[in-house]
Input
Amino acid sequence: MILTIFGYPKTGKTLLFNLLTRKKEKVDKFSAASTEFHKAVVEVPDPRLQQLADHFKTPPVYAKIEFLDAGAISLGEVKNSTFIDLLRRADGLVHLVRAFSDEEIVHAPGTVDPARDIAAMEDELKTTDFLTIEKRLERLAVDVKKMKVKELQEELELLLKLKTFLEAARPLREYPFTEKEEVLVRGFKFLSAKPLLNLVNADENSIQACAALAAPAGQGKCTALFAGKIETELLELAAEERPAFQEEYGLSGYRYIRDEFIKTSYALMDLISFFTVGEDETKAWTLEKGSSAFDASGKIHSDIQKGFIRAEVISWRDFLDCDGFARAKEKGLLRLEGKEYVIRDGEIVHFRFNT
Ligand SMILES: Nc1nc2c(ncn2[C@@H]2O[C@H](COP(=O)(O)OP(=O)(O)O)[C@@H](O)[C@H]2O)c(=O)[nH]1
Ligand SMILES: [Mg+2]
Output
């Protein structure tokens, strides 16, 4: 899974990237906009997996997220950005929004106004998609006349609908795509269709006022607070010293993004984890909520999916409470499920398949 961190210059993108990836890329007040970007792969922490690995005495293999720090995007320039491919590639977008004040750090729009910037960036994503659609429609208008192909006609009709949707100022993530439509537009990698996390980077003076902006995940969007600089400083202290300093900053209830981020993004993107256990590894897999056992088997290997017979399923908690499969089976907690079974978060799944 790929998450791309993007935003206007000097909003704290690299600061966040460093926090999440434990890297030390340069965080800089004055550097000119550069064309470089950063990339790191991190493991998704999951204490459940560690407990299972302890039980099986096999190494835990965590799910992974790739973070891209897309570098600065000038105001109004998403559509022309050299980094646009990093946005297109992402499964989810993280928009860093400035809410801290620092007179030495120039903020492109002039004043600090996170609500305005959240709306402006959403507009930029929509505009970018709109231009993509317009360009494709021009081409399609010609091709449809020439070729009379059913697929082209369907694409044309769908794109016209999406264009109307965008004209009504709605992002494409709110469009109710049918499965067939989703396949039709997949190649466009529309930006306003991607899950979006607005991360409001506040300081001790602005964080209270920003609280009203926070919004839990809904319709593929969410807004969370981040006290980037303070969090970075606090994390340099010993854990037991942090609460006192937090209080001093008026951030007693503050939840560290470094710890919360993955939970937040899993909720945003509607993802769950399931586990496979075996002789050589104990492994966590990422899955879209609502996926079937058959979908899950395909994550592991196309051969397993092809030969799918049944899935043996048990929740990780039941498994550990029973101290293994034998007692779990006796108690009827190990279930045999078919292709259509919807996998739930934290289940151990063992696939039976024909080779
Ligand atoms: N005062 C303050 N400065 C911050 C905060 N977050 C980032 N900065 C500063 O903003 C500058 C740019 O940060 P950076 O992460 O490099 O921004 P990027 O251009 O978005 O990658 C650096 O000097 C940071 O120390 C914050 O919460 N408060
Ligand atoms: Mg940067």
About this structure: Residues 263 and 331 are 32 Å apart (CA to CA). Residues 13-14, 71 surround magnesium ion (ligand 2) (CB under 6 Å). The radius of gyration is 23 Å. The chain has a mean pLDDT of 92.
